[in-house]
Amino acid sequence: MTDLTNRTGRVAALRKALQARILLLDGAAGTYIQNLRLKSQEFGGEEHDGCNEYLNLVRPDLVREKHRNYLDAGADIVETNTFGATPLVLAEFSLEQEAYAIN
Asked: Which residues have CB under 8 Å from 74's CB, separation 6+?
């Protein structure tokens, strides 16, 4: 069994899998979240409405569900929900101070 608790073990497992077959990435996080048709309160209030990255803090259950659904659909690799999690982008929602926590 491959040791996945350290980076070296994870990289080795990834390389081995890549040699054996084509790996599938998950789908678009933003589109998935938009299709949930969330209300403002699910984003943590009106001022954060539409900030998908903030869901990492206020609704981690939805982010886990998104990852689980993509894995169940056959994805081998899931990406983080941090596409716009930079202070510059988060400033639009007055969340620039949360960039580290979101990432």
From this structure: 24
